[in-house]
Amino acid sequence: MKKGNELLLLLFFLLFTNSATSQEIIAHRGFWKTEGSAQNSITALMKADSIGVYGSEVDILISADGVPVVNHDATVTLDGKQLRVEETPFNILRQVKLSNGEPLPTVKEYLDAFEKCKKTKLIIEFKPHEKKEREVELAQKVIEMVHARGLQDKVEYISFGIHFLHLVRQIDPQAKVYYLNGDMSPGVLSTMGVAGPDYNYNVLFQRPQWVKESHELGQKVNVWTVNRSEDIKTAIDLKVDFITTDEPLLVKEILQKQ
Ligand code: MG
After folding, report:
1. Whose CB among 70, 209, 219, 255 lies 3.0–4.6 Å from 105's, allowing a Cys bridge?
2. DSSP three-state, residue 49
3. From ligand 1's centre to the CA of 15, what distance in Å?
4. Which 3 state secondary structure label does DSSP give 1?
């Protein structure tokens, strides 16, 4: 082979391996730190898609009457009263307004909007419930809705709850599910069929070897919620696969400078 061709091949190889190790961005609760948006709103999902990030994260729970809804906390505040989402019927939850004026969305509405997204994946976080049977109902209903829309290749799941990891594995063995709680090694996660750790940055910064171990096991590593420049740079140097952030544009900018 001629010297020039060898150099070209080397160049292609370097370019390819570089892009293969670059990190992806997940907008935490959507892209909400922008005009007209709000955490976990449908606007935040569409805005995440408009800036072309890998994923838009969303938190979900189930109402007392079995409607999967989007909300971060176990409770909502309505007319000064705190109500537990899992103990409140949907017609009451519906009266809750997000900070941008949108009504608290259902998962169905969220998926309807998500069908129009061009680039971003949806990262669905199953929030823990008091009763295990509510978790079963939520996982079954949501995974069924995802499949009915043919969105299964564009949706990934995350949870702090080990019960949800098992549920996702049972209901949809092809689906990717990541574990959030930071207390299990990549080796243990692999025995459970989990796609990888999705841990707080403090955990992974203290245990950088877990990133390497995960990769050796064929897992992907996600880190949350990384918002400060110095932490974003540390996460990039750690070679995690995904960075979950409230500052997707800042992460984008830092990644582009690398
Ligand atoms: Mg979340």
Report:
1. 70
2. helix
3. 34
4. coil
